[in-house]
TrEMBL record:
UniProt subcellular location: Cytoplasm
Protein family: Belongs to the RRF family.
Record function comment: Responsible for the release of ribosomes from messenger RNA at the termination of protein biosynthesis. May increase the efficiency of translation by recycling ribosomes from one round of translation to another.
Species, as recorded: Acinetobacter silvestris
One Pfam family it belongs to: RRF
Taxonomic superkingdom: Bacteria
GO biological process, one term: cytoplasmic translational termination
Record domain Ribosome recycling factor: where: 21-182
Protein name: Ribosome-recycling factor
Molecular-function GO terms, alphabetical: ribosomal large subunit binding
């Protein structure tokens, strides 16, 4: 039972880490990365769909994304969706859509670091909430006399070690992201 709880907590903590990485992907650095446009929704036949379902997104060079709509009639709609996505990007439209990445100022880099720190803090909170939930489940097993007090203490120590491992990984990835943001 306790092993199942530990395994479940580790899986849930890994999902929190993955979620943080997805959040980091949206924090733009000076370089072009197709994942920056992952959150862009495009109106298509009456409903909003993700950009990657109506166009191919690729790299032209290290500072320019290329968006090629599957249908030519979607070009202006996609252009408008990218402009209104709140990413600070201004696409250039011809037969394809080119999205140049503006150079980041020192102030913009600091703002992006704050966003990355917020993502990391949210991930840490999620990991700690998972720890709390699992410890509560272990306590209920103890209360129901399904495990001994020694098993309870051992499980609490193991779960804390797992939590510490994931918090350290979050800190490591945050440091890497901050270094990437500050690189000119």
């Amino acid at each position: 039972m306790i092993n199942d709880l530990k395994k479940d907590s580790e899986e849930r903590m890994q999902k929190s880490l993955d979620s943080m990485e997805q959040g980091f992907a949206k924090v733009r650095t000076g370089r072009a990365n197709p994942s920056i446009l992952n959150g862009v929704m495009v109106p298509y036949y009456g409903s909003d769909v993700p950009l990657n379902q109506v166009a191919n997104v690729g790299l032209e060079d290290s500072r320019t994304l290329v968006v090629q709509p599957f249908e030519r009639t979607m070009t202006s709609t996609i252009d408008k969706a990218i402009r209104e996505a709140g990413l600070g990007l201004n696409p250039i439209t011809s037969d394809t859509i080119r999205v140049p990445m503006p150079a980041l100022t020192e102030e913009t880099r600091r703002d992006m670091q704050k966003v990355a720190r917020t993502e990391a803090e949210n991930a840490k909170v999620a990991v700690r909430n998972i720890r709390r939930d699992v410890l509560s489940d272990v306590k209920s097993l103890l209360k129901d006399k399904e495990i001994s007090e020694d098993d309870d203490r051992r499980a609490a120590d193991d779960i804390q070690k797992i939590t510490d491992k994931y918090v350290a990984e979050i800190d490591k990835r945050l440091a890497a992201k901050e270094a990437e943001l500050m690189k000119v």
